Amino acid sequence: MPAISRLIIQMAVIICVARAVGAVFRRIRQPQVMGEMVAGIVLGPSLFGLLAPHALTVLFPTSSLGYLDAVSQIGLVLFMFLVGLGINPKELKAQGHAAVLVSHISITAPFVLAAFLALFLYPRLSDSSVSFSNFALFMGAAMSITAFPVLARILSESHMIDTRLGTVAISCAAVDDVTGWAVLAYIIALVRAHGSNTPPWLTLLGSLVFVLVMVFGVKRLLRHFAAAFDRSGQLSDSMLALVVLLVLGSALATEWLGIHLLFGAFLLGAIMPKDPGFVRYLTDKFEFIPVVVLLPTFFALTGLRTSISLVRGPGMVFYCSMILVVAIVGKLGGSTLAARITGSSVREATALGVLMNTRGLMELVILNIGREIKVISPALFSMMVLMALVTTFMTSPLLAWICPERLLRIEAKPVQLRDEESPLRAAIG
Amino acid sequence: MFPSRRFLAAYVFFVGVPLLLLVGVLHLGRNLTAPVSVDGTWDFFPQAPQSTISVCGSEAVFTTSVLTIAQSGQVLSMDLHPLMRQPAMGRIQGVAISAPALQAPARASGCREPQSFSLKGTVDLGIKRLTISGELQFDGCPSCAPVTFRAVRRISAEGGL
User: Fold this and answer.
1) CA atoms of A264 and A255, how far apart (whole Å)
2) Can you give the pLDDT at residue A418?
3) Percentage of residues in chain A with pLDDT exceeding 90?
4) Chain B interface test: which of A127, A311, A371 (most B C-beta within 10 Å)
5) A378 vs B3: CB contact, 8 Å cut-off?
6) What residues of chain A lie within 8 A of the CB of B4, using their CB?
7) Residue B144: which residues within 8 A CB-CB, separation 6 or more?
């Protein structure tokens, strides 16, 4: 079968299954993306391959996955641009010092716990080609990430996006993601330098220069886009094409620098002007194809790489359970503790912890990079994917339990961290 | 607005101290050792260019093949193409590799039914290109002589990327 025919059939199957499973998950009050993630697992060796191994190899032969991967990478580049676009550093600044503290504790707690877990897992699930420090730092970054876009979707669907709790959660998630990606860039630079002639310091220096050029140079030029939008309420096709070119160029630059192309896309999104109307306009223009068509391809590829059969036997199940416990205790527990320290009520603090524990899509992106650079093994990858699914799945029901709708209806401003007298601001700010 | 003393104290205790712990963990972990890396694609050479053994009365032919290993710590997922039906699990302990229940399809073993066989090998660390030396033994055929082999890891797998 010609490669293009196979690719079209693969994408059609993926989109159908993703929409179908997504619809089922929406019925049980889970976000669509959760269903799409599960659809990816369904299409892989863990279920489809188990039921019909021959059909799996016919539909997704190994030789065809390169095309599928290229398509999904383009989708991820555009998606990461949108994630960066949604991040507004001023929002966190507006939350005061307390939110900064909550955010930083919600990173350090899971990060350090994951590093301790790495002491146990490294001799059991890694190999001598990976240094312990890379392994531990990767585990820390993967455990401390929060799914910024999924979180926004859940908050929006729970009508909590405009509450103070929602704003703090979104701001903290943004900081967590930026920190996680920075650590990941460092690890990738070290790992890739190991296999090339370029010393790691040169990669890191080059990356730093690139970031500085983007933040202090390119960012100013990007204001012209917002100005053009202000004048006419839209951007011309040529200007939109220029935005796409900038995204691709930035992605290519970071790939050449030896980190990963997704950083460039993310960074360009992060430095775009943050006028709400402009951000909304760009999101509307860019969202559909990457989110509805290309991301399911990425989920399917993740599912094809995930083999739950590797997590069998008491030992493997125990390691998987430990990963799950550490992930939840570190992120949910750490964020809850941080919010309690800053004086929030138990309900508020727990709700924040539950929200921050959402890993979803961003976790899968990071795990795939870890697998690509061989910092994590196939079994550990599968365990971490399971952890990402469980922690994302538990968010909506837990949030509904902690912040029930009747409470949202009774209270004018539901589950808010107290404003003026909020310890989040008053006690620490 | 400058942060209060309480904020700074909380920050040092809940962020600074864990970061110091992280440094300690990274230092401690440097002494840990993980299993020898055998992950990747290997060129698999039988003892002679075409080794044959008689399993169930028919001649099974072993030619140069490709051995693919996906490693998760001590656990290995091994695929010897085209000799095996599907990937099977093996283990590495020290430098010793073992895979006790590999399945060869009927056409590969020369038999009517799929035959199970085992792989035992040793990783040679001393030379520049990683190699495995070992033997394949068909189960339920004590009279069959083991097929000795040597596998050489392809360079692309050694580079890390």
Assistant:
1) 8
2) 42
3) 51
4) A127
5) no
6) 97, 428-429
7) B53, B54, B55, B137, B138
Which of A107, A128, A144, A383 is the best substitution to test chain B (most B C-beta atoms within 10 A)? A128
The domain that contains A399 carries what CATH number? 1.20.1530.20
> Per CB distance under 8 Å, which residues of B are interface residues toward A?
1, 3-4, 6-7, 10-11, 14-15, 18-19, 21-22, 25-26, 28-30, 32-39, 70-75, 77, 86, 159-161
In 3-state terms chain A splits into helix, strand, coil percentages (rounded to 5) of: 80, 0, 20
Q: Is the pLDDT of residue A422 over 70?
A: no
**Nearest 10 degrees: Cα torsion A108, A114, A120, A121:** -150
Work out how many domains chain A is built from and give that number.
1
Q: What are A164-181's pLDDT values in tens digits?
A: 787 788 888 878 878 888
Of the listed ranges A108-112, A132-136, A396-400, B28-32, the least confidently predicted one is A396-400
d(CA A183, CA B46): 45
ipTM of the shown complex: 0.84
Q: Is the pTM above the cut of 0.80?
A: yes
Helices (H) and strands (E) in chain B, counts: 4, 10
